[in-house]
Amino acid sequence: MRSTLPDLFDAQPDLLFQLVTMLNPAILQESSIPVYSVMQEPGNFVITFPKSFHGGFNFGLNCAEAVNFAPADWLPHGRFGAELYRLYRKPAVFSHEELLCVVAKNVIDSKALPYLKEELCRIFISEKNSREEVWKNGIVKSSLMTIKKHPLYVGTEEDHACIICRQYLYLSAISCSCRTTTFVCLKHWKHLCECDSSQHKLLYRHSLAELDDLISMACVGTPHHVHSQQSTLSPQVSITKLKKVKGGQVGFAELAEDWHLKASSLFEIPFSNDAFTAIMSEAEQFLWAGHDMDKVRNVATKLIDAQKWAVSVKDCLLRADTFSCSENDDIEKISLNQIEELLSIHPVPCYEPGLLKLKAYADDGKKLIAEIRTALSSRSDIGKMEIILSKAMEFPVDIEETKILATEMSSAKIWMSNVREFFFKETSTAIDIGFLNRLKLEMLELRIQLQEMDLLVNFSREVDLLRSRCNEILKRPLKLKFTELDNFLKDADRVRVSIPELELLRQFHLDAYSWSHDFHDIMNNLPDREDYENIVVELSGILESGNLLRIEVDDLQLVEAELRRSRCREKATKALQHQMPLEFVEEVLMEASLLEIKNEISFFKLAKVESEAIFWEKRASYVLTNGGSMSEFEDILRASEHVLAILPSLSDLKDAISVAQTWICRSQPYLIDSRHTDDVSVPLLGIEDLKELVKLSRNLKVNLDGPERLEKNLNDIYEWEHNTCLLEEDTMTLFKEACSNFTTVNHLILRIVELLTRANSAIKIGISMYVALGELPKLQHATLTLQWSLDALSFCTRTPLAKDIDNLLEDAHRLPIMFSGCSLVQMLVNGANLLRKGLLALSGPQNSKKCLLKEVEEVLGEIQKSVVPYPSMVARLQNAIEKHNSWTQNVHNFFSQPSKKCWASLVELEEQGQSDAFDCPELAMVALEFGKVKKWMLQCYAYVEPLIGNLGTLSMELIKIKESLHKALSIYRSLNGSWTKTFCLCCSNDSESDCSYTCISCGNRYHFSCMSPSCTSDNYSCSFCICMETEAGFQNGEQTLVCQGNRPEFKSFAKLVSSAETFYPGIQEVTLLQEIVELAQECRFHLYVVVDHANSHYKDFNAVSKNLVCALKATAVAGLYDYEGGCNLQSALSRHSWKVRVKMLMTGVKKATIQVIQHIEKEGLEMGIPYENQLMLALIQLKQTSLQWLDMAKKVASDSGEFALSRVFELMNEGEILPVKFDDEMELLRKRSILYCICRKPDDRRPMIACDQCDEWYHFDCLNLREEPRKAFFCPACKPFNGELISLPRPAYHDERSCGSEGEPQTPACHESKRRQQQPKTIDSCLEGNAVDAAEEGDFLKCCDEIDYFWRVRRRPLQRASKKHSNFGNLSQLLPFSTCSQTS
């Protein structure tokens, strides 16, 4: 693929990783690359091996699953892939090193061990060499990486990646203190940053010894396994490592041995944390090594443990001493367990003098623990406990027994407070017994003796006795007496404890009293109330609650009697208010007589209702038995509305009326004489309903008229059904006997018309009856079949259309089943099918497939043999066969005479064949020859179509392309002086009527519509000249003017010309295309000459620019695009642009920044410009000189006055000479050249103060100022010690401050001090306040004797900026050119 698609690989070197490009398998096979194809079906697995690419597509909807798996022999391939990812700097999916290490740690198959061993040895050697290399280069700091949470799984946690090769850093990495979040691998450590290697640190996950052990683990299952501490399977374990030092070279083992001696001596001397930290820092350079450094690692582990132990001992002593000396109780004590843990370590890790003092603290703590345990076990009094607690709180060591004793003391005091509150606090409410029980439980848990315990025990006995008496009363089986319970409760009131059983007895007593009160209230108000329903509810509730009482009451019998009377009154009231059944009224009256309340008014009214209901029942029974008119039934029904009882015969009366009304409603449709025959929405009547109505009329209890009319309608329906059956028999006879008695078509049509007329008349009569007749659908089906047969017979006298035949056959499928199988229908269907075949054979070229001549002749024979004659169709088929035979004869004549073959004859034969010929070999021959040229023209049309979108004819567009190539050739020939100028270069329109302009650079004419110019007043420049004259034009123009746009490509036209060599003569498009290709080849040659001249000349840029402008114009004007030539021209333009920019930079026309210079150098290298090129050499030398100047300028600008002022101005002069822009650095140097204060130093960020008289800035420490003066400040020069203010010449001073002579640097105000907000005082006001100022600043002036003397000795004029030095000539020797003039 790299040799086939070099351009894609140049633009994207990692193209194979992207999986976005497919190559023709035939090309791969030509390069001896095996290619396989497979059809994957459901349940199949396709395995892709390493270093192979696969692709595929689906034939429809598909759901597939892909999974990556790797056997052991894949490991070498995985390493190769990881190296490719590192080479192309592509992020890896997972770390190959992590995979190997995890597999080695887990249990693996013995068959995989050889592969795993080989790969582990490779990474061991690579890691060992890399670590030794960074150690030799001065990277001695190292540390372990963060331990992973799941070290036995791959990819669960993402490691850091190298910023250079973007690979995961699993085994090791390099970081720097300047950027702690940035890491690189050991191969790219030099590219991490510019810091010294001493600032770098090695991060590693496994030491070389651990990696060696992994290799040993991987070799456990091999036959030659040998158990040893240092495995022989990891090669080069003990290679001698040397590093250069000032005195020569020193070995890795020698350094380790020296370290071991120093570290071993630390255990014998008193502990020093700094010494241990320093020795551990030195050990970092050995811990990553192999088993030869195990001795160092063991000592380092002991050092770490000893350091932790000694620091812990010191911390314990410090905290104990701090607590003993401090009066603050918030200081945390040291735990005794922690002290004992430190003392339990034997032997002692190192020598710590404070260990004896720590043992003394531990012994005192144990004695105190024993004392506290003894006091708690003996239940001592609270006074002794407080003394022990005070002693324990003052002890500097925290022991658990102190907290236990404090908790016991706190609990005892809280319990004692609760007991006193329980007995001596005055309250009106009873105390909860749960609180008393809780106090008893807490008393049992206390381990301290108190006086209140006896008082609580005696009171608890009294409460328990009262509670037992309450339980005895509650357990009695009979109800309690009210008086007995009342006396007991009065005796129990003297105890102020809330006992649940006692409260329950009090509630029983209160419930009985409340019930008696409620009953008497109801009985007193009962005579005045009439809401018997509410009375019943209240009495029922009183009765129910009285039965639930635990105390006996005497009024329950009175409640039951009054409740029965109230319920009876409630029923009577309900019967008078609502209609109730007659039986219910009689039952209420019977119950009232038993309860002796029948004489009440409500029961008199209820007796009257009973008599009215009995009278109505007698009338209704008579009418239902003997019958009557509808009016009589309705009168009796209306009379029932005045009776206030539910009557038994009322439902029968209503049923009789309802049945009569229902019969009348159902019979109305049959009794209506006139109905609208056109109203289709009226539903048909059922004949079964009519029969049912006649039957129901004989059982009606209400006398009605109309049953005689219904019987007459039913007889008419029976007569119509008889006539319809006779007509159906005649129709079936016709359909069954028509084929056997077929004489002529006209005779059959007359019989069908007669039956059709009779059937239509019968259908009209049946519909007028508005009854759902069963024979009516059958008669309609017969009419439909007769009409279809009549339509089919009409095709015998005319040639039908294909649409008519299709409609007829479609209607045949919808004929009723009883007629579709008849012989006449089948005969007509067969004839229609034959007509359809004939029409299909006669179809024109719009049909997708033509019929064979043999098939047409067979259809003609079938139609001639048909029982039903079709003469017009027979004539049309015979005429079509004659036309086909004539056309085939013409085709044979065309192919048998080669001299007469031409494109026009072939086109004529193809058009006639589409209209007259049937399917035959001659038609395929003509179509094949015509299709070749047609396909070629369509391909050519597709190449040309994007040029202008909607095209005319193909030949017209090819002529336009040819003319554009002629114009491009004339532009190339202008380089030799032979060019005929046209009015507009970009189009073929030479009319001067359109708006145009002339380019001031090349003199060519352009229409404004063809190319918009860039103008300056009245001067115009074309885009081609702008591209060559300006830098922006180079960057933009070479992309827009050389691009393909919508023009066709030269290669496409060349392929078309080669494929048209075998075509017939006389094709205009082929001739035009051949001429276009010849012209394009000539333009290609001229472009090659121009590009070769531009790439090989470095001096005459004007001639090169002129040639490139002509090439740009010719490429833009040509209607055909050459991709190869365009790329060459674009490359030549880019190189020429680069050369012009470098030339302008070297001549100093316009200064550029150092970043621009580096960017130009990078562009040149990307273009392939060699280092030997003189412009490239000059650019590199200028970059190096500029970088040296920048480093020196930054050093001088931040030196705080270390360098001499002459060196500052020397650097400034050198920066102005260089053709590079150093605005920021020059500004820093100007600020550096300004001096302040009596020390004559630049601004070094120290606090400064300005004189309110002369604006001179002074350092606080130079004047021995400790704080800012409260009022105005005057320097010693403006206000000496005698107190007289000196007035300075401010106008001259401000002139010097604002600008120096010859453009000298200005003196800015100090960056940390602000201008005074108040207006400065005048000279007179300062003199008037002289005495006050002297008094306030007396102390300040006393300490300024030496400062004032130093000031007056070194005082110079107020002109700050030093004079510029003369031009330095030493810089010019470093520059690669001598044309730049030095600035004065």
TrEMBL record:
Keywords, in A-Z order: Metal-binding, Nucleus, Repeat, Zinc, Zinc-finger
Membrane-spanning parts: none
Annotated localization: Nucleus
The PHD-type domain, residue ranges: 1234-1281
Superkingdom: Eukaryota
Name of a matching Pfam family: JmjC
SMART domains: PHD (SM00249)
Identification of the protein by name: Lysine-specific demethylase ELF6
Lineage: Eukaryota, Viridiplantae, Streptophyta, Embryophyta, Tracheophyta
Gene expressing this chain: ELF6
